[in-house]
Design goal:
heterodimer; A: alpha/beta; seven-stranded mixed sheet; B: 672 residues; alpha+beta; two-stranded antiparallel sheet; 23 helices; 18 strands; 12% strand; Glutamate--cysteine ligase (chain B); ATP-binding (chain B)
Amino acid sequence: MTALSSEAHNGATNGYTNGSAEHNNNNHSQSTTEVSGTSAFANNAFSHLTLYTGNTMRTGTTGQLNTSLKKSNQELVSAVQDTLLYSVDTARVKGSSITITDETSLGPLAGDRSLYEVTVKMFYLSATEGTPLSVELLTIAFADLETAMGIPDIKIDHFILSLPHQSFDENGLDESEVEAFTTEIKTSVLPLWKKLSELRQSGRIGRLGVAEFSKQQLEILKTLATAEDVNAVAPEVNQVNLQDCCVLPRDLINYAKEQGIELLTHGDAVEILPKNTFAALLQPNLPGAAASLTPNFVLKYSAFISSRGLVAKKGCVI
Amino acid sequence: MGLLSLGTPMHWDEAKQYADHVRAHGIIQFLNLWEATKNSQKDCLLWGDEIEYMVVSYDDENKKAKLSLRVWEILQELAKEEEEAANDPAKKLFVNSSWHPEYGRYMLEGTPGEPYMGLPRDLLAVERNMKLRRELACKFMKPNEVPVTLTSYPRLGCAGEGLDPHHDPHGPAARSLFVPDDIINAHVRFPTLTANIRRRRGAKVAINTPIFHDKNTPKPFIDPTIPTFNDYPEDKNAIEQGAALPDHIYMDAMAFGMGCCCLQITFQAVNVEEARKIYDQMAPLGPIMLALTAAAPIYRGYLSDVDCRWNVIAQSVDDRTEEERGLKPLKNSKYRIAKSRYDSIDSYISNDPSNKPEYNDIPLVFDEDIYKKLSDNGIDNLLARHISHLFIRDPLVIFHELLNVDDNESTDHFENLQSTNWQTMRFKPPPSKTSPIGWRVEFRSMEIQLTDFENAAFAIFIVLVTRAVLSFNTNFYIPISKVDENMKVAQNRNAVLGEKFHFRKQIFPQSRPGTPAAGTPFGSPKLSNATLPRTAPAAQNNTHSNTSGGSLAPGLDRSDEYELMTIDEIINGAPSKGFPGLLGLVNNYLNTLNIDIETRCEISKYLELIKKRANGTLMTAATWTRQFVQNHPEYKQDSVVSDRINYDLVKMIEKINKGEVQVPELLGTFSV
């Protein structure tokens, strides 16, 4: 299985490869010169792909979403489609990695960093059961964000971790489900959560949270995280889907109040970027890549000017 | 409304001699202010609403609802409270409001004590504050008095004793056949304004609103309730000189217009460029919101064929001479002027590149000398046109004592003209050089709703639309002549459901053709504005048009950029066209923010109201009022709204506000 990776904008290679990377011996250029024409890439089976969507606030992608869809990946799909349509020509290729950056996402945030509230939601996509979620991917994600937002050593005010297949279930967990979930957290999530907590404790993350957790699940995470030998933080934010937000179970609301957990709304689909959607998106311009790549993560980020109530920038990185 | 300076005002004969003086100094004052504040930056969104109330006095024994002229006393009490609250933080929590007089002696205006801020959770404070204001106002009223938020008072100007205390009509200031001068706010500014409008015009104002022809309404309708007097030359206006039109409800005083109530929202922009941008972007929404908030179907005791107050007010302060109105060739008057000084805006003012010259397609009448003075002093073309257009009007109220002021410190003369141009939008410079308040924009077209829940909903909606506009950098531009067409149509009976409005199709200027945001869901690349074929070289800047005929350079044909849409489409969107609608924009904006569930749910409630009014699930106040009248046992299907019907209507509105009665057709299951 090949992996998605990113390379920093300044062209430095991080030399990251994944286990069984598949390389095609095509004559792709070794330098990072811009190539025009999608046909140059059509048949390449890249081993890494990073795509930065445009500022979806400005491209109209976010504005024209159908708001009757409460659990949707419409925004991501439209944004990626948009970028592939317009920016494949200016993609940078290095070795077997391709980085596509939307023309509208260029440029850092105007004005003082302190004006902005930066929120990031990281959707972990590929996970093999029983194996820990990759901490390495987190490092890559941070690097991608710094590129996308034009802010070095970025501090993220709200960081939301979205686990694969996690969906809010208002019915409680029975004993076996509790056990299964506890195991899952211990093995898959905890190492990553520990790393995130370090970032939280060092101030690189302002508030750390999860999405679609029920009260029980929040409790389990808290217990495991704050255990002596782990020494991580308890979740401070839980995202709840718009569809559920007006009919949330009382126990979750009360627990959140007690624990100081912010219950924030979101409208994302549970499966934000299924493999076949990803393949379908790439197919028109990069059929070779569509066949060879699987998405690792999606980052959704936004920068909000709280004093004026304006969203300055919003986009995704895949 | 406007300024309440003290002093002795001039009669029109004197005031007109100082018109140029006021204008000249007004411009100097503006330029001084501009120099000091053009670069001002305000980092916070601050905004506020203005709610106007009428105070009704019940005569329960005789089943009459009268207008109480006691508001001045009530205001004094409220002013005392305000003062105490300023010094006592604990009291401030309960009083947090500010009160002002308005044109009508029965009118009250209340604003929040402090401006609101711009985050979603700040918006939850709006309804609370509005309710607080209503409670506070009630505190100083007699047991038989009640404040109501009615846009037009149904039986204002009807014969019989409709005022408490009673006064006979036909005073020297207004010379109205229907209302006494005592209906006007006693502060000397207001009757002076009234009289000077009449004097300048050379006749009383003539308001004619089409009557609603019901089954038993005579056709043609010649109003039998117009009295005859023989005291003033103006007494001939109505019948002898034909000012009162058949099939119309005739009104002859400023009170019928400026005695109406409305909902106004003012917001502070980060700087002057943003203010100009918001002004332009919100302008096309003026008629849309007017139709959506329609609440004024009854005038002088008759059901009219319009649902809104706008044209009534426009006609009620129309000080244009016959020459200015084009009825006689220009001899003494300087310009031919198309509109009353109260009406929709005539030009866009932003230097944003999306403001193409073709959108300012109304030939603009402006003072060339003033334009030149502004231009010579660094004011750009669009802003100079805007101001020199406002300044074609004469100042109507000039106080002797304030004639000569320090132009470096005062903005009195500027404000004189600025505040007596009443339009759908108002562009407001900082009040003074040193004020902490920045550049602001006022949205003025909305009618006041019957309950605070609705008023809060509309206020919140407008603020969220401005946030969405700035966040998405939307483009709502259509030729301004089309906005005017929308204004006309917006006032028609049931326009919200029955009419269509010009609206821009492609509202995301930076979207790229072929993408869903370009309005073409996954399909053929549609041409966006950038690729319209050029038919003639378009002027780079707006050339200024002269008063005699518009001479705008022929530019691009922009007619492909907009189309007729229903209010439902404009507000709720047309998914098949990829058009999100204003609510779609607002919701997409909100979904991008970190909002907690409680706040999100509360705000959704308000947005639901807007949605349902737009798609017809719930009625506008105008429609509901009509129905109430037409279903009333005393109604004779002759368009007449009797004292009894009026009384029952006001009582019903009071009950709705107190939550004692449910009106699902108006308010669904929302609790007020």
